[in-house]
Specification:
By secondary structure, this protein is an alpha/beta fold. The protein folds into 2 domains: 14-102, Ribosomal Protein S8, Chain: A, domain 1 (2-Layer Sandwich), CATH 3.30.1370; 118-328, Rossmann fold. Helix content is 39%, strand content 17%. It is built from 11 helices and 11 strands. A 6-stranded parallel β-sheet has the order 8-7-9-10-6-11, sandwiched between helices. A hairpin with a 4-residue loop joins strand 4 (118-119) and strand 5 (124-125). The longest helix has 19 residues, at 62-80.
Length: 332
């Protein structure tokens, strides 16, 4: 009896694409120092890129070459708009080109200018993944948002950016940033120093985001005046927060009682964003997370948006995304 014939694996079509850029002075920042941006694109997409004058030749499998072309065009468009392009931006645009929900090459998401952005005193922030685009639209329109996903996806950073933008334009009067001060129950009494010294280390990521959006003297002045308040969640009890942009970070480490207390602080003409990673609960009983409880109860309530990020949306070093994927492991 003869051997059964096996179907031959499909042969990937090879392509050779050329791009001609009409503004040669943008090619230095586009290619990066010592062509480091081109090297990143080559490594991530498995193509070969050769630059000659204002022309770039891309060779590789047809789909990969097309993606590389869209990435270069997207980065070039950002430079033409006056935006900076660094290695992180290159990784982010590659990530957007690779995301399956884009169904191949979608110019609106990759090559065209971003349709949503956040302006602050120090920088203009544009989305660096498709899910960030959806999140930034929600931040601009929704009154309450649950932002769920791993570290490095921009959940808190973009929320702080939107809050600062609304504060400096007068769209809100106060910015209130909160998080569980100590992950497993806020036991501040065991720490040295006064209350501010006990709390500040746990709130440092929020300070860092603020200093990225506003000059240092403005941050200090607005904190001193009460326009910006940074406090552990326990300090929210008994208050009603009107005309405020309220952000709760590390929300997975709240209890259901704390979360209910926090959510019911919501006042008139306010906006609230609750950020957390349901996979990183530090409570003694991970099953008692107030974040998971709140999302299960409120996800379908009118006026509340839920945005879910994954490891594919990580916009830090690409190794962070791979670490997140390795820890999460295969899901049933």
């Amino acid at each position: 009896m003869g051997k059964r014939a096996e179907a031959a694996a499909p042969v990937e079509e090879h392509a050779r694409l050329e791009i001609e850029f009409d503004q040669p002075f943008l090619l230095g920042p586009l290619f990066g120092e010592y062509d480091r941006h081109l090297v990143i694109i080559e490594d991530r997409l498995g193509v070969h890129i050769a630059a000659r004058g204002n022309r770039v030749m891309i060779e590789g499998e047809a789909d990969a070459a097309a993606r590389a072309r869209e990435v270069l065009m997207g980065l070039y468009t950002r430079l033409d708009q006056g935006q900076d392009v660094d290695a992180e931006a290159v990784e982010a645009v590659i990530g957007m080109a690779n995301q399956p929900q884009l169904d191949g090459i979608i110019n609106e998401e990759v090559a065209d200018p971003p349709r949503v952005m956040i302006r602050t005193r120090k920088k203009t922030i544009v989305p660096r993944s498709a899910m960030q685009t959806s999140y930034m639209h929600a931040l601009a329109k929704q009154d309450m948002i649950f932002a769920l996903g791993p570290a490095g996806t921009g959940k808190t950073y973009l929320a702080v950016a939107q809050a600062v933008s609304m504060l400096i334009t007068g769209a809100c009067e106060r910015l209130i940033l909160s998080r569980p001060a100590v992950e497993a129950g806020e036991r501040l009494g065991f720490l040295p120093g006064d209350m501010k010294e006990k709390v500040d280390p746990y709130l440092r990521p929020l300070y860092d985001a603020l200093y990225d959006m506003l000059p240092a003297e403005q941050v200090e002045r607005r904190i001193a005046s009460g326009e910006i308040e940074i406090a552990p969640i326990a300090f929210m009890r008994g208050r009603t927060l009107n005309d405020a942009f309220i952000i709760l970070d590390e929300a997975q480490n709240t209890t259901p009682a704390q979360m209910k207390m926090f959510l019911t602080r919501f006042g008139m003409r306010s906006r609230m964003v609750i950020c957390g990673d349901p996979m990183q609960v530090d409570l003694p009983d991970p099953g008692a997370s107030g974040l998971a409880d709140a999302v299960s109860k409120l996800e379908k309530v009118d006026g509340i948006a839920t945005v879910r990020f994954t490891a594919a949306d990580v916009v830090r070093h690409p190794l962070v995304g791979r670490i997140v994927e390795a820890y999460e492991g295969p899901r049933a």
